[in-house]
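Every protein is a chain of amino acids, and every chain bends into a shape of its own. The fold becomes a row of whole numbers, each drawn from a learned catalogue of backbone shapes. The protein below has been through that process, and both of its lines are reproduced in full.
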Amino acid sequence: HLQSELTRQANHDPLTGLPNRLMLLRTAAEALDGIRGTRNNAAILFMDVDRLKEVNDTVGHEVGDALLTQVATRIAHATRPSDVVARIGGDEFVVLCDGGIDEHTAVDLAERIRHSLSGRIMLHGVEIELSVSIGVAVSSAHHIEGMSAHEAALDLLRNADIAMYQAKRRGRSRSELYTDAMRAESRKHKELGSELERALAAGQLRLAYQPIIST
């Protein structure tokens, strides 16, 4: 019984009881291995609860935890029985879709989840505006050629994460489908950020003031 409980704790999120990042990646690797040599796809929907930090900072972590539990329940109700729902970070949830799914179906599912997680809800007597940003990435046997199952799982998760940040940049409370152009843009943003940090450390930046005058 103790061994079983330790295994459960190692593979599940203590707050929601959902699979954690470790178990999600293992399950995704198995799913991607299963589509090799077939025409099936696997998809990951990566969702981030918008403004959770504001909830924690203004009304407390108890309400924030209740919000996360509510999110987990709503995602489970909005997804299909074959989908795997996981919580892989503080405000990050993932849905793994295996088998007969394509980009259109994955985006439809993301929109269904997003609608179920939109609007005002009451928790511990506090009204909260709930919304999520969702990134969608779909992988086929062609996409994972030459990759190990674990590498393919990490790549698919990374792509969905990139798409989620695109949804954040475009205004939150929306879903975005991953494209290769997004990865290039994400890499460009990171390189620019690194260059700016180095320039700041080396004293290569100076402040300039541009007055705006009404004529």
Q: What stands out?
A: The mean pLDDT is 94. The first helix runs from residue 2 to 11. Residues 137 and 160 are 5 Å apart (CA to CA). Strands lie at 41-49, 84-87, 92-99, 119-123, 126-130, 132-140, 175-177.
